[in-house]
Design brief:
Blueprint lengths: L1 E2 L10 E2 L2 E12 L5 E14 L3 E14 L4 E13 L4 E10 L2 E12 L6 E7 L3 E5 L3 E2 L1 H13 L4 E6 L9 E7 L3 E2 L14 E10 L10 E7 L5 E7 L3 E12 L6
Length: 255
Amino acid sequence: MTTIPQAQSLTPIKIIPHKAAYVFEMESADPGGGVEDIGGGMTFEWADACDGWALKQHYLLRISTIEGTDVDISTSNVTWEAKNGSRYRFILRRGRNGTLIEDIQGVAELSVRGGAGSAKFEKPKEQTLILPSGTMFPTDFMLSQMQAAARNERMGRRLVFEGSAVEGPQTVTTLILPPRKADEANLLEPAFGSQTVWPLHVAYFPPDNFDGQPDTELSIYVQPNGVVMGYVVDYGDFKLRAKLVKLEALPDQGC
């Protein structure tokens, strides 16, 4: 268990390294979007690598269309991020109906947390992108939003580089709602303690296009220990709900 330093926090943030499994359900669909139903699920692992955070995410999304066809979209995302927020390694692979369609890999570095830096892609081809001052990496961003929630802040805007596409950082806005009890509290073992979740509404805008429509909107329900109890993603044509079905703590690495 790792305690995250924070100033004037009302709720302590103590990350519990864990593995979680989710199932996907359709929350809603646009009548003209052509989506009949969705299914699938995701596994997620947040491990403490002592000098950094190691995350693994694997998911399969099956989209059933009104024409009667199924489309399977798979994603594997493996990252490591320094705890000081300055260095980030990423590997992402996407597949469609069993065929690999994207293979992205690289490393990014900032001069200091929140400073300028660069992202060096090794795949799909070697190239380097400049990261402007104010850029954050995804785990550092999530921790910052949890810290903001703990301080009872309600809104924020950051630049976040994830390496999920060959492009610069996205503008990400967050609306933080008051804490509430987790709906899935029955899944929480004693090791996970608190049954409180912070509802966060997160919108991702295309690089250099903050005034337009967001690419993705996400409603996430996260505990002070880092466990996501569930989330809803708005893809435009449909909304997907991820429901937590299994949760276990990872062994203590003695960091």
